[in-house]
Amino acid sequence: MKRSLPMRAHATAGLSMVELMITIAVLAILLAVAVPSLRTAMRRGYVSNTTNALAGDLTYARAEAAGRHKYVSICRSSDAATCAGGTSKSYATGWLIYAYDGGSTGPNQAYSTTATPAHALLRASKGDSRTTLAATDEKVLTFNQSGLPVANSGRTAESFRVCVLNKAGDGGESTVEIPGRTVSLNASGGVSIAELAPATACTL
Fold first, then answer.
1. Which helix (DSSP H) or strand (DSSP E) does residue 8 occupy?
2. What are 14-37's pLDDT values in tens digits?
3. What is the pTM of this model?
4. Rounded CA separation 198/55 (Å)
């Protein structure tokens, strides 16, 4: 006859108070190192996303002008429906891309819903409130039927600067950890991106 062996009780081992305190301390150190790095990476991403969105839209507008054989303009906008007025050079609240025949008025027309269907809205892009985006001037930017930038008050090229926004109302900041970017449109319609040096002004 087989005899059954008694089951042995297994003691459940837990963390001692010292071990728990050491574990918490290690986690605190890891968080102290990881959180600032994660925040910096996210802020660099904001600058990169705004830069790429603008550069992509400039390239898109140029291609649409050449493809449609019409004027295609870009203007600042705060409501995704009309061009913003005033002398502000900030595109931080967004911009519009629209196509039209010049007619008797010519290029560099400001988009307005009352001009429809003369003006065809192609794209309304929103800015990012976490970044600043400043242009050379406040004027409408236009590509002609060949995809070349049209002069506006003598300006045939355009530059934009993108920086991370530290607090509401400031002009942004370019630092070693979070460098700003310059998006340049040359007289032939080419778009290029360059990194701003630390402490370089984010306004133009």
1. none
2. 668 877 787 777 777 766 665 567
3. 0.82
4. 22
